[in-house]
Amino acid sequence: MSSMLITEAGEGLFHARLNRPEAHNALNTALLQALSEAFARADDDPSIRVILISGTGEHFAAGADINEIADKTEAEGADDVRKTYWRQLQSVRKPVIAAVEGYCLGGGCELALSADLCVAADDASFGQPEIRLGLIPGAGGLQRLADRLGKARAMRLALLGERISGATAYDWGLVSHRADRGEAVTTARSLAEKLVKAAPLAVEASKAAVLKATEDRLNDGLDWERRAFERLLSSQDKIEGITAFREKRRPTFTGQ
Ligand code: HXC
């Protein structure tokens, strides 16, 4: 098991913790692979009833690893094994709970939005800031934001790259639960304890039923969003956006 991902299992709960605190737990390919494999194992393990995901350190995750995206082209994006990992993560049958403290941005936000329950610390920071890099999310972030928030609020996050606090995310219905700062994992664990005691077949069927009413109708949009993300990988604006991020300056975009 990679030390980028710390896992523990017991009493029906599988807990995975993203562990790249030096990069605000940015999801590089090795971490995404470890996470998707861990989720798949937990999903197939009859002793596990619930999966919990959180970050180590102060943050959940600040997105995909920008250093990996920097040189990636459209063709490489189309072939990217990361798509398989995302698909695996997002097709777990057992309930997944995300416990979010600190930054929950980009791919980190997409991961949290893919969970079935999400506990956000009041001062956590949610957003899809990809537009500032000349990109869009590619793992369904905009589909799920629009689905949960409606057009007006989704546009604020999508077009302006606005970040919202955990408290606002709760008020807007983006996440299912709120917690005081530092208490997200404790709150998530108490929810997990309830789910561990619930009827497993009914839990699995309930999850699938809700997803039929929500996720299933997003399928066209999910594919479209991924393709648009891939096309943008080869743009000059992406190169400028990521260069500016690294140089800690404002980007100048040209639409090419
Ligand atoms: C790689 C990252 C990173 C990221 C932060 N770091 N986010 N490295 N990928 N996504 C690194 C920084 O480079 C820095 O490394 C260290 O973590 C601490 O970050 P700072 O910027 O110094 O911290 P701070 O000033 O507190 O700002 C925090 C922040 C900022 C607001 C979260 O780091 C930020 O804006 N990060 C990028 C967020 C983002 O754009 N996410 C979307 C990524 S694209 P050094 O070595 O300098 O100390 C994406 C697409 C998904 O997610 C597509 C899915 C298919």
From TrEMBL:
The keyword Magnesium does not apply. One of its GO terms (biological process) is fatty acid beta-oxidation. Keywords: Lyase. The gene is dcaE. PROSITE patterns: ENOYL_COA_HYDRATASE. InterPro entries: ClpP/crotonase-like_dom_sf, Enoyl-CoA_hyd/isom_CS, Enoyl-CoA_hydra/iso, Enoyl-CoA_hydra_C. Belongs to the enoyl-CoA hydratase/isomerase family. One of its GO terms (molecular function) is hydro-lyase activity. The keyword Heme does not apply. It comes from the Bacteria. PANTHER family: ENOYL-COA HYDRATASE, MITOCHONDRIAL, ENOYL-COA HYDRATASE-RELATED. This is Enoyl-CoA hydratase.
